[in-house]
Amino acid sequence: MSQEIFRHIREEKHFLKEIDLVLRNDEDFKAFRRTAESYLNHIVGSLCQGPFVTVDTIIEVEGGVVLIKRSNPPFGWAIPGGFLDYGESLEEAAAREAKEETGLVVTNLRQFHTYSNPERDPRFHTISTVFICQAKGKPEAASDAAVARIVGLGAWRDMEIAFDHKRVLEDYSRTR
Fold it and tell me: What is the distance between the alpha carbons of residues 13 and 170, in angstroms, rounded to a whole number?
């Protein structure tokens, strides 16, 4: 029952309009309350502390890859990416974040690697799946990106890179 209540409060579109509990006695009520409170507290606690699911997209374009300069902390240059929205696949999130931050429509999206070091993001624990994809055109900064630009392979080594994206780009460079 606790899972159904949680699903009910999480979903925008749900079949439940009302939940009526019929418990036979105080003992049943106390058992339900203990179970429900424990489960819901565990879920809320887990959701609030993470780890949080994120995606990053190495967008290959003519002349190099696209990096964005972040307009929010932590500052620095980064691979376009962000948080997975509820009900969204990793692939949908990667394409959405790429479009939101660079204006580019990506093609040939494929998973590269997943990074899970709890220290990779200074704000909190994230687990990020990195995708490689292609795009055509010139990137235009949008969303939380102050600048979007094409950087030649290896040119990023002299830039201030946010998160663990220097490692991600090093790993990517070894495959090229």
Answer: 43
